[in-house]
Write a structure and sequence with these properties.
The protein is α/β, with parallel strands linked by helices. Helices cover 48% and strands 15% of the residues. The protein binds uridine-5'-diphosphate and magnesium ion.
């Protein structure tokens, strides 16, 4: 029988976590021939979330919890949950019921029967989010898609069910600055998208404010793109071009029209030239830095989706025909 690990990061979710457990339990037990485990990660909650989790785990042997010594953030909580999971499939869900448990059955069908490595929820609409947050998020995803050339669209969150191969690939990515939406896209695997309508959280409040959203967006760009390091190259070449044009036209004026442009003109040209040169040097430093940055992440060079069960060393082809038993 297959087993599903349900990974739930929780930060100050005392108002909603029991309801989440009941609703999700109902949905997962309705799926035939499926064993399950809940892995709750208490991300340093300051309310009674941990007490509730202790009680749930005492009452239900399918529940487990990990409690962090302080708030490490949802990214760390998801990693810890995946690391502790023992299921053939894993699903990551928010504790606030914004990820509908009713999608678990079609998700499980997609990964267990339809051959997908992953089945992800795609939120449509942003009811419940403020207009400012919706606008900023939409534009952020447009920018990050362009900068990283990876599939990170608005609405595609962390709610997804994955098979063990994909989970193991994610666990191989041990980088400290984690941006899991980018990691899902980086590891590949065929993904089926299931749309769902955004709903307000069942109880409690969102843990995000404008400042933390900006820093999350910035982390996303820095974790998956070295494009900002190329900016000095662009500005530097523009400045060098400007210096060349100014210097050239000054020289033409002097040589052909015997008209001197004045000391200030030449000093400005030299200053622009030196600034451009400095920018180009910064760009070169950035190029070394971006190589080092990628080396430091120690990301896997490739991720295998599937291979036959023969060990690689026994690759000599034995063409002896199978001898059938004499009748
Ligand atoms: N969460 C967490 N650590 C944090 C912030 C959030 O584990 O530092 C959990 C939170 O308890 C919830 C999920 O991540 O289960 C999503 O958080 P939230 O609902 O606040 O985000 P939103 O839905 O507003 O994007
Ligand atoms: Mg939420």
């Amino acid at each position: 029988m297959n087993k599903l690990s349900i990974i739930v990061p929780c930060y100050n979710e005392e108002e909603v976590v029991s309801l989440f457990y009941r609703e999700t339990c109902r949905a997962v037990t309705a799926i035939p021939d499926l064993d399950y485990e809940f892995i709750f990660i208490d991300d340093g909650s300051k309310d009674h979330t941990l007490d509730i989790l202790r009680l749930l785990c005492y009452q239900d042997k399918n529940c487990h919890y990990i409690s962090f010594s302080r708030n490490f953030g949802k990214e760390a909580a998801m990693y810890a949950g995946l690391e502790q999971s023992t299921g053939d499939y894993c699903v990551i869900m928010d504790a606030d019921l914004q990820h509908p448990p009713t999608l678990l059955a079609p998700m499980y069908h997609a990964v267990s029967q339809e051959g997908y490595g992953c089945c992800a929820g795609k939120r449509i609409g942003r009811e419940g989010d403020s207009a400012l947050r919706s606008m900023l998020s939409k534009n952020f995803y447009k920018v990050i898609q362009k900068m990283t050339h990876m599939d990170m669209s608005d609405g595609a969150g962390d709610f997804r069910m994955m098979n063990r191969t994909m989970v193991d690939a994610i666990l191989q990515m041990k980088e400290y600055n984690r941006y899991t939406k980018g990691i899902f896209s980086f590891v590949g695997f065929e993904t089926k998208w299931l749309e769902f309508h955004n709903v307000q959280r069942a109880a409690g409040t969102s843990k995000w404010n404008l400042g933390s959203l900006f820093s999350y967006a910035f982390d996303g760009i820095l974790s998956f793109s070295t494009a900002p390091l190329k900016l000095p190259g662009i500005f530097g070449s523009l400045l060098l071009l400007a210096a060349a044009l100014l210097g050239g036209s000054g020289l033409v004026q002097q040589l052909f029209f015997h008209h001197s442009m004045g000391t200030l003109y030449y000093i400005s040209t030299i200053v622009i030239f030196l600034s451009g040169l400095q920018m180009m040097m910064t760009f070169i430093l950035g190029e070394y830095l971006s190589k080092d940055y990628l080396e430091n992440k120690k990301r896997p060079l490739y991720i295998v989706k599937e291979q036959d069960s023969q060990p690689a060393s026994s690759s000599v082809c034995d063409i002896t025909p199978i001898r059938r038993n004499a009748m």
